[in-house]
Amino acid sequence: KMAADTPVDILQKVLENEILQSTKVVEEHLDAEIQKLDQMDEDELERLKQRRLEALKKTQQQKQEWLSKGHGEYREIPSERDFFQEVKESKNVVCHFYRETTFRCQIMDKHLTVLAKKHIETKFLKLNAEKSPFLCERLRIKVIPTLALIKDGKTQDYVVGFTDLGNTDDFTTETLEWRLGCADIINYSGNLMDPPFQSQKKYGTSFTKLDKKTIRGKIYDSDSDDD
């Protein structure tokens, strides 16, 4: 004959039953919530997917529009007249005023070729300063190379010689990218407060500080000390 349950046993069974019941309620509640979340997620995911597709489509259209306007490559424009047309149709333009005999212009060309491919949101151009006397006077370009940074048809900023680029011939493309980012002429993803040339090792160069002196209207090479 089995011993009768003691009050303690009875109490334990009641408690276990209570716990089971409450656990069951909690589980049912959780199941219901999970099911609701699952259903919500599906709709939400679908909406997110749609939004993502629309954004991608927009980005693709924008990219095509930029490419059709000559973005994505570093190009030389033949005349001052072309300059006004090119600037009018693009929001962000970087124009390199160069001279064929100036060595530093070739250094600038090398970096701009890379950046034009990377930053298709911006148009990268070059214009022979000797064939553009009107523009050089109007934009007060005295030192070659000079980059004119043009936003919404207005010249906002200039990169004159290599002064802002660590004052050295062997500055990196990242340094020029940072400088253009400071002018908000490209979409820059790095930290503007941390110029790349600050972390570069200082190599001993015979390079002297760029001379910006000009004699009434005469355009100087920034590497005139080499000539």
Automatic annotation (TrEMBL):
GO CC aspect terms: centrosome; cytoplasm; midbody; nucleus
- The primary site where this protein sits is cytoplasm
Q: Could you name the domain of life of the organism this protein comes from? A: Eukaryota
Subcellular localization(s) per the UniProt record? Cytoplasm, Cytoskeleton, Microtubule organizing center, Centrosome; Midbody; Nucleus
Q: Which Pfam families match?
A: Thioredoxin
Query: Residue limits of the Thioredoxin domain?
Result: 80-163
Keywords annotated in UniProt: Cytoplasm, Cytoskeleton, Nucleus, Phosphoprotein
Q: How does it assemble?
A: Forms ternary complexes with the chaperonin TCP1 complex, spanning the cylindrical chaperonin cavity and contacting at least 2 subunits.
Job description of the protein: Significantly diminishes the chaperonin TCP1 complex ATPase activity, thus negatively impacts protein folding, including that of actin or tubulin.
Q: What is this protein called?
A: Thioredoxin domain-containing protein 9
Species:
Serilophus lunatus
- Read off the lineage from the record: Eukaryota, Metazoa, Chordata, Craniata, Vertebrata
State which gene encodes it. Txndc9
